[in-house]
Design goal:
- There is one protein chain.
- The protein has two helices and eleven strands; from the N terminus they run H-E-E-H-E-E-E-E-E-E-E-E-E.
- Strands 2, 6, 7, 8 and 10 form a five-stranded antiparallel β-sheet that branches. Strands 1-11-5-9 form a four-stranded antiparallel β-sheet.
- It is globular.
- By secondary structure, it is α+β, with helices and mostly antiparallel strands.
- The longest helix has 18 residues, at 7-24.
- It has helices at 7-24, 56-60, and strands at residues 42-45, 52-54, 65-70, 73-78, 82-86, 92-99, 106-107, 111-113, 118-121, 128-136, 142-149.
- Strand 6 (92-99) and strand 7 form a beta hairpin.
Length: 150
């Protein structure tokens, strides 16, 4: 009596596993690449004066890397500088959150930015820039716009 062949079963399971991976894992071009910091991104806070807003989460996107595109290829490097301009009508305070690696986060001192003024923020050395927080002081919404990344 011939033994039953399990080859069709293995092929079906392999096919299902491939479909499952395609659904769970997004294509390489869509893995976080669309939400990176770039010139023109805006962070706007209408929170009560004195409360901090995470601009990395609400406006600027991922601040850790700056990605460049050249045709169909691209590359990413650690963000070494982000310049922001206060586009609101109130003074705002910003704080840089950076660290030497994931899991270690250190906050800088607050930096005041007057309306219409810019400030250049740097994580320093080979550190990750994890976040920039925004805290407004007046009654008008606080607003920062990214004018340079590098």
């Amino acid at each position: 009596m011939p033994r039953p062949s399990f080859r069709p079963v293995y092929l079906a399971l392999a096919g299902l596993a491939t479909v499952g991976v395609a659904i769970v894992w997004p294509p390489a071009g869509e893995r976080g690449g669309d939400d990176r910091v770039e010139v023109g991104r805006v962070c706007r806070s209408t929170l009560t004066p004195g409360l901090e807003l995470s601009c990395g989460t609400y406006g600027f996107g991922d601040l850790r890397y700056v990605c460049r595109k050249h045709g169909t290829t691209g590359w990413c490097v650690l963000a070494s500088v982000v310049t922001v301009r206060n586009t609101g009508r109130s003074r705002v305070y910003v704080t840089v959150v950076s660290g030497p690696r994931q899991g270690i986060r250190e906050e800088s001192d607050d930096r005041m930015i007057a309306p219409g003024r810019s400030v250049t923020l740097r994580p320093g050395g080979q550190r990750f820039l994890f976040d920039i927080t925004l805290r407004r002081t007046g009654v008008a919404p606080g607003s920062l716009e990214v004018t340079e990344v590098g």
